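Design job #97: recover the sequence.
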């Protein structure tokens, strides 16, 4: 399918108030979409369903799924070195001064968390905030800009008339499953990208990232086999750098399944904290707003993937040697915004440990808003 027809179909579906999701996986040229045929709100009950899931931060709330069986599937490939046309005339941004009140509240919240960490069992808590920007935008144009600007991120545009409209470009994988092999990651620590990946990390960031890694390993260690932990490396996400460690292994169907692994991982210490129960309780009590789907997860769940062993398209006979696997590709919903009533609600946060400095944490969230502001 050509790009113009792809985006035209998305626009028509949105104008008809029908649910859809459009997305591109990191470092891929293929952009996919599921266009749900009705307005029913489908709920994922055991993660055995097949489709695109959209889960909230609070795992006690319902996870929404756009089922493959009730949707039309679209796909187009962005040609190499080709751009995507944007009609910027439809975008009208009205800057809003965030003001000192939000800054003072967040700094005070961080200071309170640091005090609790020093006195209590809490080791890390991830605190976030929501920044409102008055805008009048076409969401499909914003999606196109995200595709252009963030090729290494998972980019998406998700809409359901009974829930809302979300867009994002997240750098963090929650879980990838192919057959019984899985891969996840710990991602923490933030600093601005200044032209090089050869940077130094301070004690706070290194400790924060290690907490995330150790927590993931401890939760999965008894539930999977062949658990492997990579070396930690610095990665670039937009205009920011993070510390990343990959964790992989085999899901033993006798001891665990995809649902069990998801429940163990979500919410991760990278978006909640550690220990999980104490961190989550602090967030729900003190953040003073509802994260909704920010720091939840989203992506393909139990989607059938066909792969041919033959790379020569002319050799049709060898195309019979294909494999069909069920795959899941789930991502943590970071660097995202919600569009609501001519407002963009931009969600950002950061991990707090005993070595955090409240003013610096505010500045970190300011930097993280630029991912979404750059496409507005």
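Job complete. Output follows.
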């Amino acid at each position: 399918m050509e790009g113009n027809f792809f985006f035209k179909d998305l626009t028509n579906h949105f104008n008809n108030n029908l649910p859809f999701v459009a997305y591109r996986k990191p470092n891929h040229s293929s952009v996919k979409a599921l266009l749900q045929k009705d307005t029913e709100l489908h709920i994922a009950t055991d993660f055995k369903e097949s489709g695109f899931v959209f889960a909230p931060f609070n795992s006690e709330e319902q996870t929404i799924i756009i089922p493959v069986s009730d949707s039309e599937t679209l796909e187009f490939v962005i040609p190499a070195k080709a751009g995507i046309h944007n009609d910027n005339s439809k975008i009208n941004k009205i800057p809003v001064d965030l003001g000192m009140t939000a800054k003072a509240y967040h700094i005070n919240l961080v200071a309170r968390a640091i005090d609790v960490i020093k006195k209590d069992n809490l080791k890390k808590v991830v605190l976030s905030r929501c920044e409102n920007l008055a805008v009048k935008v076409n969401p499909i144009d914003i999606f196109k800009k995200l595709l252009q600007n963030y090729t290494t991120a998972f980019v998406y545009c998700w809409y359901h008339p009974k829930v809302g409209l979300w867009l994002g470009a997240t750098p963090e994988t929650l879980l990838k499953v192919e057959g019984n092999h899985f891969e996840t990651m710990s991602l923490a620590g933030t600093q601005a990208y200044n032209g090089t990946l050869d940077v130094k990390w301070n004690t706070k960031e290194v400790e924060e990232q290690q907490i995330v890694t150790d927590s993931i390993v401890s939760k999965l260690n008894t539930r999977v086999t062949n658990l492997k932990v990579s070396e930690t490396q610095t990665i670039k996400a937009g205009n920011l750098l993070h510390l990343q460690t990959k964790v992989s292994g085999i899901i033993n169907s006798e001891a665990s399944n995809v649902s069990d692994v998801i429940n163990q991982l979500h919410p991760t210490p990278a978006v909640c904290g550690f220990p999980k129960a104490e961190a989550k309780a602090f967030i729900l009590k003190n953040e003073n707003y509802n994260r909704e789907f920010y720091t939840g997860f989203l992506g393909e769940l139990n989607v059938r993937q066909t792969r041919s062993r033959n790379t020569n398209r002319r050799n049709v006979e060898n195309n019979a040697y294909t494999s069909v696997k069920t795959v899941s590709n789930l991502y943590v919903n970071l660097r995202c915004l919600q569009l609501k009533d001519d407002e963009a609600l931009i969600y950002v946060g950061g991990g707090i440990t005993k070595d955090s400095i409240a003013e610096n944490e505010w500045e970190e969230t300011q930097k993280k808003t630029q991912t979404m502001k750059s496409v507005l």
